[in-house]
Model the fold of this input.
Amino acid sequence: MKRILCRSLCLTLALVMVLTLASCEKKDDFTGVADRLVDVDDMPSPTEDPAAFLKLNAQNTLAVLEKRYEASPLAALAKIEAASGRLDLSLAGGGTIGGVSASLAFDRTAGRARLDASLESGGGDLSVGLYADGDFVGLYIPDFLGEGFFGFSPTGIYEQASGSALGELMGDEVLSALKEAEEMMASARTAPKLSREELEKRGDQLLSQLFSSAVLTVEKESVRRDGVEDDGCVVALEMDSAAMADLLERTYELFPEISMDDETRRSIADLRASGVRCRAELMADGYLVSVDLTFTDTTGSEGAVSVNFFDDSAESVAITGSEGSVTVRSLAETDGGGWSHTLTVDNNGESATVSTTYGGDGKLSVSLASPGRNGGFSGDLKITDAGFTLDEVSVTSDNATKAIPLTVTFTAGGTVEKPTDTKNIFSLDETELRSLLLTAYMALGLTV
Done:
């Protein structure tokens, strides 16, 4: 239980930091280094307004992190803006492996998506289709169901099923579960979409709750950032179990979209009486350099989470608990028009490394080195504003390399046509339903 409570608090504190990477008013000076997104002349005083001070320090750090990863393939892919598009995948067959082709098209403006796929095998080709919009969700498997898209309306599923031939076949227990699932989906669909301004406002309120719940101290201290010492400060917050429970309750109050169930209420009550204490130390010198969380109880230290954003130009996270320690280090580098990334995971002394390189010529390579397994893949990844293409893929496993005839292409734009041969499975009468099931049984080689 304590582990769950500590994780909940960690998530809450992380939420506080994420939601407060917003702009704030210009205040007092703070002595630190230059070349920041938010300059030293605009930095609030850490003693007079520590919340605003940490927000702007976090902004500076966020700008550094964005620069580290701006040349990565994921960043380039994220820049592709498409209200509609089509993703095509083709894997040529060879040997015992059959060929696979698939196409996924979407149109967010029209609210439509369609997937068409085919699999080649020795027993013949298998075609599968899936279509979805606000009025109909259907599946197309002609070899098993016959021609047409068989599906239902995504709204009012329980009402469609009740009294239908298929509903009677499902039984009351399945229908009840279906009704509960539909209510959950309806709640998710009707949940208000929060604007950036609203998120920033709630983040400010949550940050204020954090500082009002904690015992706060601010001290000048030398800060090491990327191996260089600099004048900075440490903002420390200490909270007892009651303060942590108050912070969690306030989080749910500020975000009513996240419902608090009975189990969560019991967990918060347990936390309030647990005697757990938390200390957070945030080191800054104009940048948010590191965040250290330590949890203790009446028996002593339970565990700690340490995050450093300037670990020799890398980010590192160390988690220490009764079961040992895990350290994750992420290093991104740009060199000669290319970009490389090294992710290292150390779990109680055993290390695994994932290395990624992405050249200016579009050559992508990912490799894994670990005590139990080595391998990786490579390919040509070409990215433009209108899409991307990945081909010439090779896979390496235990020093053996094999070419894979795989091509993946995404093209922005286009429309999605709604199929005309749609059939609502809940509108089928008993005879039609029996015929459909019989067709599926016979295609699967089953007997009735």
About this structure: DSSP finds eleven helices and 21 strands in the chain.
